[in-house]
Design a protein that fits this description.
The protein starts with 42 loop residues before the first strand and ends in an 11-residue tail after the last strand. The chain has eight helices and 17 strands. By secondary structure, the chain is α/β, with parallel strands linked by helices. The longest helix has 13 residues, at 337-349. Helix content is 19%, strand content 25%.
Length: 375
């Protein structure tokens, strides 16, 4: 007889409390490296967290799924062509990813100083210069904690004009391809207004002007927020315990009209539909413990993960997210860990396309809004 195990350690069932609980297997080729031919041709996996049931729909079916009197909230942030490709004086290639204007309060009128990530970081020390074109160079001014840099755009052009001329769309690394002319339009929502993001709020990529018009004609309202998406959105959580993860910060703005529209729709018994995790993060960051949504601008480092009490958002439209990501944890907090991970398994089996250019998912809240204080 072989050796006997005494007091074996029980294997705990995944419950969303560990980062490893958010792993899942995605077959090769399931990442959508290019957008669908039409924005609203994407598929839509509808999840009812109360029952865990999923339904396979088309994104354009939102016209049937969102009742009159409800409110869509969208993120108006515009993706900047913030990836600058150039050469060092030696002729070796170099890359600059602009993140945010350094010290600028008005993102629509940035100056020439920016916070940035650089590559190769070991070679681009303060005092070095990267030549992007005859009309644009980037001077490395100073270092930042975490390996970033303060850089200065050296050009006679307006900074935003210089980016439009010489910048590249900062596509997610997992697409595994350089940006192409189609990405200038398709890696941007049709309602994008304020430059500031280095990644698209991807749930909104599925909307067309026609679909928005149909929803408006049906009596569905629309309100806006701005949250500028940073590169941290793509970074997996390296810690074993989500509580040990240092959350990235992002700039947001909630207009007064949006706060008023949300209060009105909740007072009438309607739902607030967040288009994307960025909208959820912005709205829940700007809400007090007693459920009051406050208009204004600021910075958020809110990390939404199970368990979390949602106070504003009643339904969520989102894409499928990377394993071990903060975005997947947010979705699991909203729809319930087991229901969301089971829905992801169903999406994998059902051939859904994943990530930024992929298909979408719709989650209803666990109960209609019940006044101040949430669900």
């Amino acid at each position: 007889m072989g050796p006997q195990l005494t007091n074996p350690v029980p294997i705990s069932k995944p419950d969303g409390t560990r980062v490893a609980d958010y792993d899942y297997e995605l077959p090769e080729g399931r990442i959508a490296r290019y957008p669908a031919e039409r924005r609203d041709e994407s598929r839509l996996l509808v999840l009812d967290p109360l029952s865990g049931a999923v339904r396979d729909r088309a994104f354009r079916d939102l016209v049937e799924l969102i009742p009159p009197g409800d409110l869509l909230v969208v993120n108006e942030s515009r993706v900047m062509p913030a990836r600058l490709l150039g050469v060092k004086p030696t002729g070796a290639p170099a890359e600059i990813l602009l993140l945010r204007p350094a010290g600028a309060e008005d993102w629509s009128r940035p100056g020439r100083s920016w916070e940035a990530l650089v590559r190769p970081g070991s070679k681009l020390k303060p005092g070095r210069t990267v030549v992007i074109s005859d009309e644009l160079s980037v001077a490395i001014v100073d270092g930042l904690e975490g390996g970033g840099r303060i850089v200065r755009l050296e050009t006679d052009l307006d900074p935003l004009e210089a980016l439009e001329r010489f910048g590249h769309v900062p596509l997610p690394p997992y697409l595994g391809r350089p940006d192409q002319p189609l990405d200038r339009k398709r890696y941007q929502t049709v309602y994008a207004r304020t430059p500031g993001s280095v990644a698209a709020p991807t749930a909104g990529l599925h909307f067309t002007e026609g679909l928005l018009s149909e929803l408006n004609a049906r009596g569905v309202g629309r309100a806006v927020i701005t949250l500028h998406v940073g590169p941290g959105t793509f970074r997996p959580v390296e810690a074993e315990d989500p509580a040990d993860h240092h959350m990235h910060t992002e700039v947001l703005e909630i207009p007064e009209g949006t706060a008023e529209a949300i209060a009105a729709v909740h007072a009438s018994g309607g739902r607030v539909w967040a288009v994307g995790t960025t909208v959820v993060r912005a709205l829940e960051s700007a809400t007090t413990d007693d459920g009051e949504l406050r208009a204004g601008s600021g910075v958020t480092d809110l990390f939404i993960r199970p368990p979390f009490r949602f106070r504003v958002v009643d339904a969520l439209i989102t894409n499928f997210h990377l394993p071990r990501s903060t975005l997947l944890m947010l979705v699991a907090a909203f729809g319930g860990y087991e229901a969301v991970m089971a829905a992801y398994d169903e999406a994998v089996r059902g051939g859904y396309r994943f990530y930024s250019y992929g298909d979408a998912m719709l989650l209803y809240g666990r109960a209609p809004h019940s006044g101040a204080g949430g669900r």
